Amino acid sequence: QVDAVRVYVNSSSENLQYPVLFVVRQQKGVLSWQVPLIFRGLYQRTYNYQEVSRTLCPSEPTPETGPSDQIIFVDVSSMAPFNITYELLVTRLENFQLETNKAFNFTASPSQPQYFLYKFPEDVDSVIIKVVSDAVYPCSVVSVQDIVCPVYDLDHNVEFNGVYQSMTKQAAITVQRKDFPGEQFFVVFVIKPEDYACGGSVPSSIHGNVNRTWNLQRTKNLQVTIVPSIKKSVYVQAMFFSFLSFLSFYLGSVVVAFVHYIRVRRKASAGRLSPEDGSGIMTSSHPITTSTPEGSSYGAIDESSSSGGRQLSSPERGLPAGSDTDSSVEEESDFDTMPEIESDKNVIRTKVFLYLSDLSRKDRRIVSKKYKIYFWNIITIAVFYALPVIQLVITYQTVVNVTGNQDICYYNFLCAHPLGVLSAFNNILSNVGHMLLGFLFLLIVLRRDILHRRAMEMKDVYTLDYGIPKHFGLFYAMGIALMMEGVLSACYHVCPNYSNFQFDTSFMYMIAGLCMLKLYQTRHPDINASAYSAYASFAVVICLAVLGVVFGKNDMWFWVIFSMIHVLASLALSTQIYYMGRFKIGKCYLGIFRRAAMVLYTDCIQQCSRPMYMDRMVLLIVGNLVNWSFAIFGLVYRPRDFASYILGIFICNLLLYLAFYIIMKLRSSEKLLPIPLFCIVATAVVWAAALYFFFQTLSSWEETPAESREKNRPCILLGFFDDHDVWHFLSAAALFFSFLVLLTLDDDLDAVRRDKIPVF
User: Fold this and answer.
1) Is 657:516 a contact under the CB 8 Å cutoff?
2) How far is CA 25 from CA 28, 30, 31, in A?
3) pLDDT (tens digit per residue) in 282-332
4) Domains (ranges, CATH) in the chain?
5) Of 93, 22, 85, 83, nearest in space to 52 by CA
6) I want to staple 732 with a disulfide (CB 3.0 to 4.6 A). Which of 370, 433, 501, 605 is the partner?
């Protein structure tokens, strides 16, 4: 048992010119202070305390010398020309050493800090120091320091040594035995003279209350409990759980592929293969007529002529169908490969009733190469984006480890399990699902791509007129984006704070954008955005996100400009979508808005005519109302979490477009096959569960570190993962199912001619 002595002094003098000086000399150190004790705050404000109480650094008996008496000298002096009355009281502390799993209550103030000793039990390698208080203020600091004298237990020096964090109502520090060679440490509690560091009010000036005495006005009742942390076996169990949970998706995919293979073989042996095999891959090579269905040319040119034009211009006749990577194929450029002589694309694309054959007239190989650029570009972006991010978060973690300042990173400290140099390994491990499922999605797309190539090599050229055109470049890009979301989310959780939150959301923007592009590309393969313009748009969004983090907190001018950009971009994009990319006036894009105003005036005010494309008009009106609502909300409330605000805009637009697509698909008498139907249901269920855990806020960098710790909660899964980790697991699965929905949604159309597939 270690004995400790506490010295209490009190002086009635408030004269700052002639303080009373106390010097305590011990065997291994000297401790000194003055009364009145002065603390300095913001704007050099001073706070005076006439009552001071300090714990002297204890001397632990060694095995060589055994217990012995400790001699302490207390020197009291003052330069005052008059007598000063003081009180000196020396007491022995009865409860200086804290015990495991036993709560201890005490009181502290700025001039009367407290610290206690803790020794690791034999079978404990890691402990969590939990500190709670019923009162938010005064602001306090909890510090863990090695057994070294002097102990830094005042506001101006508590940050000089060890690990520390600020506190309002709750704090938690995980301590490992390996970090303390003596297998013991001090837990220090300091009350700050001001509360602004914990989110309290900020002093407005340096005037007033300079000589005021604060003796009993800033005391705080605290309770400390030290509990054992998890054992190494829990780390192993958590890693096995993380990997096996997602490897089960691989097993499920293999089972589905095997069942599909057996079904195709049975159909082949029965001699009743259909133009599609149930997975989006056409398998027949029977002759196909080129007759045009009745009514398919309603309000437009004759389909037979356009079909003949495609046959004359098709470079695929007589060439291997899988040779779309031939270097002789010219690169995508501003030159439109659709033959202008045979049929004018402006006439075709502005028909009242469009079919997929109208928007899939370009050379398949060139279009396929165009979409493969998405894949190669996102790999380049990922490398150049991820490398500096990794370097930055390593620097953050190093600063935390070297300085001991745990206010830098916003962890859930009640469930932050360190491993090596990482402070919260569980938050990083839980992102493995994004990487594993992203890679699995790439394998699924690759299988479809290979089967499609084989089918193309075996079939007549006329079978190209069946089903949705198969372009896999965007799917590959989506798989890479999902993997990179896991990598960058893990990087963010190395040290989560407001400065690097955009790392966690950047590829979420890309995922949402790529999903919308893929959904649009499905029935508009010839007029979808190029990879360069799409990624340039994502770059603009990320730039706006960074500007929002910097200026979006209080600057009204930023929100005005952003809202204007948001509304104008929505109108411009709506116009392009409504007119299928054929809405251009000269070289000036301002002509878009000028003509849009003219059309609105002519059709809606002068004549009040019915819109030419009613379905598209309904979608775009609802979409614009949603986006304008977001713009107004941002302008009025100015949310501090700007990155999540932009992400919400993307997600809402994606969900709106997906719902519109499915509704229009069902309206067109198309059906949902069992696999896409299962994926839709699984997506909805898993997303609902994931969002439940997402909104269980465990920390918030919008507040001070001390206020954020009030939201910390214990682990809920295996004693290792918290609510946010469960969100990582479920969101990875939800994104994977969402991708499968886009991949399989139109498998029912593989036996349908393109001139019978409507465009919406």
Assistant:
1) yes
2) 8, 5, 7
3) 444 443 333 333 333 333 334 333 343 333 333 343 344 444 444 434 444
4) 4-62+72-200+214-229 (2.60.120.380), 352-546+669-756 (no CATH), 554-639 (no CATH)
5) 22
6) 433
